[in-house]
Amino acid sequence: MAFNHLPAGVHDALAPLSVTPVTHSVPMAKNHRSDRPPADRPPGPAPGAVLDRLASGPSRASRITHTEHLPPREGRHALWPDRIRPEVLAAVRAAGIERPWAHQARAAEHALDGESVVVATGTASGKSLAYLMPVLSALLDGSEAPNGRGATALYLAPTKALAADQCRSVKELSQPLGHSVRAAVHDGDTPFEEREWIRQYANYVLTNPDMLHRSVLPAHSRWSSFLKSLKYVVVDECHTYRGVFGSHVAQVLRRLRRLCARYGASPVFLLASATAADPAVAARRLTGLPVVEVADDASPRGELVFALWEPPLTELHGEKGAPVRRTATAEAADLLTDLTVQGVRSVTFVRSRRGAELISVIAQERLGEVDRSLARRVAAYRGGYLPEERRALERALHSGELLGLAATNALELGVDISGLDAVVIAGYPGTRASLWQQAGRAGRSGQGALAVLVARDDPLDTFLVHHPEALFDQPVESTVLDPDNPYVLAPHLCAAAEELPLTEEDLALFGPATEELLPQLEAAKLLRRRTRAWHWTRRERAADLTDIRGQGGRPVQVVEAGTGRLLGTVDAGAAHTSVHEGAVHLHQGQTYLVRSLDLEDSVALVERATPTYTTVARDTTSISVLETDTEIPWGDGRLCYGSVEVTNQVVSFLRRRVITGEVLGETKLDLPPRTLRTRAVWWTVAEDQLDRARINPEILGGALHAAEHASIGMLPLFATCDRWDIGGVSVPLHPDTLLPTVFVYDGHPGGAGFAERAFHTARAWLTATRQAIASCECDAGCPSCIQSPKCGNGNDPLHKRGAVRLLTVLLEGAPVEKPGGEEGTDAGAATGTEG
Q1: Secondary structure of the chain: what % helix, strand, coil (to 5)?
Q2: pLDDT tens-digit profile of 74-96?
Q3: Which H helix or E strand runs over 487?
Q4: Is the separation of the CB atoms in 252 and 212 below 8 Å?
Q5: What distance in Å separates the CA atoms of residue 93 and residue 626, rounded to the nearest whole number?
Q6: What is the pTM of this model?
Q7: Where is each Helicase ATP-binding domain found (predicted)?
């Protein structure tokens, strides 16, 4: 990849309707501990009966477009390897587990052989026990060492909640082992007085990649005793490490391996993942090591009933008179209310923090009308809460005090919320892997479970509820990450040099782009070469050059203006759209209006209010081509992939009614533009193709714009991305291509791999896009096909029929895909219409 500009982090440092049901095989599994519900709880209601009650209201039954029945499955047992310590086997038997499932035994065998291994089996299939057995055995062996602290192990989770949950489980399981296992959580919530004890005495440290990047690795000399004894590194839920975040984590793990080698250790990596395509390939890319794959799920599962649910059309009309469906938020709140009234323990997953709060508020209000005590048994759970709030909610959920929860994916990732009977998923979560992960939260005790996917008014959601084969007949996606992304790699090279001067022997560890980046980092006076090593030159910490979650700076603190109370935080990258002046902000069921946003001090002042609307930001975008890496002919048009510069500015916000989505008005904003250098896929059409598609100049802009919106909406079906991870621009005549052009770009500096995946699957991707537009029942376009919720141009212009004709002609010239869905060769300023 050519790299002609300094990475962003370095630059900042320099600058102080009805489908016949069909049964399919889907990768799911249930809890390994027992096929019976806990003794203190009666068996849950049959999932089919719960669904029948949900569908019994007026017009409810017609909203179910498809019902999938996954039958129960018997488990296959094996024997633990004889190298597992007998004390560990006894502790596991005391927990009620007599024999392992076959995949657990295989994974433990590889770990004991010193081979890094990824266990890629279904939700609740016992992946934790598969890696814990060799880990606990090693810790027990180490406790008998005559000198020193003995063997240590490191556990990495993508969320604090998961690490805390796993720590509880480890302590319970290892209680018979006495003080041989000293497990402790080391994260941002850990009191400073506890951290020194953890460094000196803990032999099983549970943390997250962020803490490893910012705290452990920069202070490696204080962790030397732990690192030199490091036997195993557990990477849990590793399928979540995708895109920019995954690329950062890959480099953090390389820094960890380098420091371990410095202290004489070579840890074995044990990875756990929900069922994924090519898990060994993704694990190798993440760790930089050879990894053995264990993917044959031998655990049992209970019955799963999975319903696809489409909210009805309302009598209201949205932008340009388009028909409006009832929102997934309102529909999911109704379902959560009904489940709570029935006494069905459930979680409703929603993609946004605001959505989680809204669903909780609506359900509480409706439950209060039935029984005031029920309203207190529903809550919201999301990122941005203060630590004490999160812990209280987790305790209430574990105890059963809460019957229903509206949650973001903070609760998706393996947290043991056993005893749930149902899961409602408000909007497709972006990937099939996440869909099955969320659905698997119910029925974790081996009982039957109900999952309901409620479609949003969105091209992809609408397509999926009417094409169930796209969910139930397809494997989960490949994990996309790019550790060689220079915007990711450069700050990690700086961090590594501060930890320990970089030598030429280190270059291979960090990847082929390293040699090209080092001279640029020298020129920027960030690194200095002395003899055979590169040294960090600045006083500030190199680890602070980058936020590994790609959030782009300090989180914005949300402060109540009247009291000065800190309510929570918002990611810096989302501040312009979520806490701009006039925005509606929800926190713990309370509604606030943003009075002011101070970007310099990263503070948003809010005040209590009771608006009858929500707010949605609008922005404008321009794009220029920096470099075309590869291009292939599509008839007279071209399909291209390369580097672009995107300039984006939030210019206004809409006020919409909460339940209906009706637009009440628009208010202008004055916020600074932001520039992004990233990767994009784009396609052009020639004049002859426009003639064949009967596209005249009057409808050209609308046809391109409609195709752009729909293609962004459909891309998550082909890449492990979310529509909010990507952006788009369509231009009737772009100055860099001199042709009508549609761009789809990664919304992260340097790219995240999504645009590259779009380039390689373009024929299938754009074919599905055309089908989604053509099959929609509306006349001129609606949110289910070509309207976008984040369009900076107010969804104007759009031309539905023109988009279908344009894509038809474009696809006529598309080359035949190679096996594996790739086309062509492997790829390493005009204001337009933005999606």
Answers
A1: 40, 25, 40
A2: 899 999 999 999 999 999 999 99
A3: helix 486-499
A4: yes
A5: 61
A6: 0.75
A7: 108-294
